[in-house]
Amino acid sequence: MNAVESRLTALGLTLPEPAAPVANYVPFVRSGDQVHISGQISLGPDGLVAGRLGAGLDLEAGQAAARLCAINLIAQFKAACAGDLTRLRRVVKLGGFVNADPGFTDIPKVINGASDLMVAVFGEAGRHARSAVGVAVLPLGAAVEVDAVIEVS
């Protein structure tokens, strides 16, 4: 077992089967030494975490939803690299979108749920640039969506 798989096990995480696209796009594109992963919504083993932060969902629920997005990003990355997570050289950037009430301002803290997991799984290579944006609605009513750019070897 490699270091990344060991970290996943230590965190008690099992990667799901990568989700199929829900519209006319592909789950990831490899271009040169980068993999661009399409937005992954807050879908976990218990179903979709849906709703609006600040109007029914609190910060803790948002962070958990963002963590689910990160788990789904890692699953897509694993598929993009034929199962070899050690090919990750760097998480370059995460783009985070939060279904938020207009008065909810903790958008960056929500996306920390995804950022923190990337660092926990990939160590220093998991540190990344990021955007965190509040939006009026997300696909399927999801609470959070996160996309990624990852450098590969």
Automatic annotation (TrEMBL):
Domain (Endoribonuclease L-PSP/chorismate mutase-like): residue spans on this chain: 5-144
SUPFAM superfamilies, per database record: YjgF-like (SSF55298)
Pfam families on file: YjgF_endoribonc (PF14588)
CDD domains assigned: YjgF_YER057c_UK114_like_1
Family annotation (InterPro entries): Endoribo_LPSP/chorism_mut-like, RutC-like_sf
Source domain of life: Bacteria
Name this polypeptide is given: RidA family protein
Native source organism of the sequence: Alkalicaulis satelles
Biological classification of the source: Bacteria, Pseudomonadati, Pseudomonadota, Alphaproteobacteria, Maricaulales
